[in-house]
Amino acid sequence: MFKTSDVRRPTSEISGVKPLILFGGTFDPVHGAHVRAALAVSQVLGNAPVRLLPNAVPPHRPQPLADASERLAMVRLACAGHPSLQADDWELRQAGPSYTHLTLQHFRRLIGRRRPLVFMIGADSFASLHQWHGWRRFAALCHLAVVPRPGAPAPLPSVEKAFPRGRPRLLQALPAGRRLMLTHPHMDISATAIREALEHWGQCRALTPVVEAHIRRHGLYNVRTSAAPAAPGTIEPDTDVTANIDANTYTDANTMETTRPHEF
Predict the structure, then answer these.
(1) Does the N-terminal peptide bond of residue 54 adopt cis geometry, omega within 30 degrees of 0?
(2) How confident is the model at residue 15 (pLDDT cuts 50, 70, 90)?
(3) Which of 40, 123, 138, 230 lies at a 20 to 30 A Cα distance from 183?
């Protein structure tokens, strides 16, 4: 069991035999599809632990609206009650842009050369992976778990070749270099749409109740100043995202970090 880190305390040494899964993003705000995707990848890889890492300074994209402490607090609330999920503040404690290859190098040093390390990524980001800073180093550091996203383009052949497809057992046996393609859950909602719903309606069912309560309590995303009460019978923007996953069936889609530009 990992100890929860905070902004003042370094991330503790990782131990264990299961893969370690990393899930980075702005989480501005973290929402239900994030949680469902993290749980799905954890489950298919033997209930492996997942670290959710809010970015400090996302490269080449607008900066988050909520500050680091609020985003970390929301991620911690979203992870509560899910033993396999944990908020991690490592990127928040680093200076400069939150480049993925630096995060991967850090966690590879922590867990050693032999333990599998898996980086979760949306299919749209996987399709632009060739634009990410230092992406060619990724295959020596981690596997990829690619979560489907509607309308994601196909990747370059060079990206597919760098990460040959593998089944869950192979990702659990090897330390790095393979690609797991998931068919569910679909990441079919964006944080942008959620922020717009919050500002207009003051609520959004794509959020977990505890995260929505935190947003309302702290007046994030202009909820207190701009939200209009929903009319009777009105349902705010929603998404229906299934948490089912077929461990034996995969789709083909492949990945941007001059950016980690596509938020979801």
Answers:
(1) no
(2) very low
(3) 138
- Stretch (H or E) spanning 53: strand 50-54
User: At which residue do the structure tokens 């209930």 appear?
Assistant: 47
Beta strands in the chain (DSSP E): 20-25, 50-54, 85-87, 117-122, 143-147, 179-181
Cβ distance 204 to 192 under 8 Å?
A: no
The residue among 261, 262, 52, 257 whose CA lies nearest residue 136 is 257
From residue 210, alpha-carbon distances to 10, 33, 39, 42, 80 in Å are 26, 15, 18, 22, 9
Q: What is the pTM of this model?
A: 0.80
- Strand-pairing partners, residue 118, are 21, 143
Summarize the confidence of residues 181-207 as an average pLDDT. Answer: 87
Give the separation between CA 95 and CA 50, rounded to whole angstroms: 23
Structure-token match 């939200």, residue found? 227
What tokens appear for 176 in the block? Answer: 């790095």
- pLDDT at residue number 225: 58
In what helix (H) or strand (E) does residue 180 lie, and over which residues does it extend? strand 179-181
